[in-house]
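Quick start: read one record
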Amino acid sequence: MKAAVTAIKLFEKFANDGFRGKITEKFFSGLLKIIKPRGKLVLENLARVYPESSEQWRKNIRSQVYENIAWTLTETLALQRDHSQAFQWVKSVKNVEIVNDLMAKNQGALLLTSHFGNWELAGSWAAQNAIKHGHELHVIFQEMHDEDINNYVLETRTRSGMAMIDKNFSVMKIVHMIKKGAHIALLNDVSGNGRVKVPFMGIEATNMPGAALMAMLSGCPVIPACLYRNAPFEHELEFFEPLKLPAENEISDREERLRLIILEMNKAIEKFVRKRPELWFWLHKRWRK
């Protein structure tokens, strides 16, 4: 899709955090609300999680989800002019000392986040913050089907300071990196291969086991983080205390321990989503039949 990448790069030159950004967002928002990508799935997902909600409420949330996606696209394009703008647009950061203290001790960690708010802006801020402290933020990346779009996303993330790791990279190599002090970030809210089934938002779902495996084998802190959108180009980033995960001396069965770690990770992400459901990417096929 070279034509799509060319169009995206034209929007890069146009979008900013002023009047042109509003025009760009209106274009994307209008397009999304006309096309309604996976519109039926969004309503089905909302009905699963909020069975007592009205159809009108679910449609309103879907509209806000599309609006958040439109602003996320706009902000991410505008960010390409100068990635240091992330420090201007993230107006406040809570509990950043949790990750900064770990970096000062050269202690590795997993940063657990999701497709929530503007996750690209959150990654850019965290990567540049890590560089300021003499570290790199390694981000696990799942390749996209289209090669041109995939290369474009990799390029933009790399420019922002993220050190990209392919999703198929050896888990043991990542564990070794963590033990040597690396900070690894990953979006951990998509459906897995069916191997591990635990609830997400109270409904049984298949889950990706990779993050839980890394945490279990490395013993590193797992720190949830999310970015709340308060307004266009105005965000609040929050880091949370490391998750309390079951230790080997508490649960000796590895499969059961893995399942419980995934469950705790899911619960952490659930808190973001329930607080601001309009900011989560409900377009995922999170609950597969």
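The radius of gyration is 19 Å.
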